[in-house]
Amino acid sequence: MTVLELVKPVQEEPVQAPKDRSDLYLSVALTTVVLALLAWNITGFPTASDDEGTYLAQAWAVQHGKGLAHYTYWYDHPPLAWIQLAAGSWLPGLVAPGLIAVAAGRIAMLPLQAAGLLLVYVVGRRMGLPRWAAAAGLLTYGLSPLFLTMGRQIYLDSFAVVWLLAALALALSPRQHLWHFAAAGAAAAVAVLSKETILLILPAVLVAMWQNTARSTTRPWAFGAFASGLVLVGCFYPLYALLRGELFPGEGHVSLIGAVQFQLGSRSGSGSIFEAGSGANSLVRSWLYYDSVILVAGVAATIAGLAIRRLRPVSVAGAILILVALRPGGYLPAMYVVQVLPFFALAVAGVLAWTIGRLDRWFKWGAIALAVVLAATVVAPRWYVGDRRALTANDNAAYVQAAEYLRAQPPSTVVVDDVLWLDCVNAGYPEQRVIWFYKLDLDTEVAARLPGGWRDVDYIVSTPAVRQDPGTLPTVTALLENSTVIASFGPADGLIEIRQVLKEPQ
Fold this sequence. Notes:
Blueprint: H1 3-7, H2 22-39, H3 50-63, H4 80-88, H5 91-95, H6 101-108, H7 110-126, H8 131-142, H9 145-150, H10 156-171, H11 178-194, H12 202-212, H13 218-234, H14 236-243, H15 256-266, H16 279-290, H17 292-305, H18 312-326, H19 337-357, H20 361-392, H21 397-407, E1 414-416, H22 418-426, E2 434-436, H23 439-442, H24 444-449, E3 459-462, H25 464-467, H26 474-481, E4 483-489, E5 496-501
Parallel strand pairs: 1-2, 1-3
Antiparallel strand pairs: 3-5, 4-5
């Protein structure tokens, strides 16, 4: 070694600049705040619905190896959402065994909703929104009284929309790796297998991929990878039906295609949203009652966003959902708005950012000041009323009392709605002797268990869900007419009655 080599300065390794984690810290902090509001009083508000109980009971069936549902699975919805629910719905019951089943299931939904909030922020940033606008989108979504109401409930739509947001985030990936696009296809397939109606807004993911890829290089490969992921994951559902001999309609069995035909053609519609008194009109009015701000602003921003390139993916999703809701005569479910909210929130934040970004400095500060004033004087008071009710109301007290009463009774043959079905099973009632009221008249297997008809039932629990369609279920009607109240809970509009069946008709 020479003297020059000895005195040669040692070259230091280049120091890498620390990664900017501002987006991570901001999104996690905001999600934590919204999640705390979502969790606060989640067991008390809103009132438990029969749909929630149904999905939770189906998750229970998966957990206990009893198939895809607690009754005959008839392909009414793809099963992947409640399979996901089954993975975590058992945990809250271990921590707080006194909770009614639906309350425990709602708590199990919180990690999913946290993922959805974070993905709203990620999609906003990957669309090119500034940090403040992505944060505004997250808060617009998360603080809406509609989200603090519907987001608490156990709905298949919540699973589907989170997976579709994941597909959008992957399709907008700045790295543009092929596996990102394949993963976007797989996520889109999981979304569809969680709730089939999300299929209608898959064009939003395709628009995002089209804008994020170059025509001559990555675009053909990206769409090929996406299609591969979509088909490879999505084919498992029809394959499952085919292997069970239940793909096509036939005598003596349910079928996937038969269920699709029912959903598309045989199901009674909700009427037009413009027709006073129709189911669709009443439903839209109820959504507007909870939060007219995000719905009205969301529709306007969605239409405007179609003309703004970076907002086009979420605007396409929102526009399709608007058009589907506007179609006359179609079926509009109560939980449909769950799919709408994140896309409306991102469109509102995006249009606001686009508008402010095109003003000069003085007008920009004026526009920001105006937005703050409007938020404080128009939005905040409206949201305060709805959010305050979500944080304080106790609408499930009657269900809690009824569940406690049933747990204390010796097992018997009891007819209940699906909110209480799992509570009875968990309390030790034989599964075959706890009957979901719908199945009494609609499932021949259940009817075979009761050769004496309604006389083989000991008790019926009369809830608003049981009483909602008087006369359409003959056996349920007979049970209500030939029973006497032995316990009742709750106010008149949410009355729950434990009724003992009289073996001889009155």
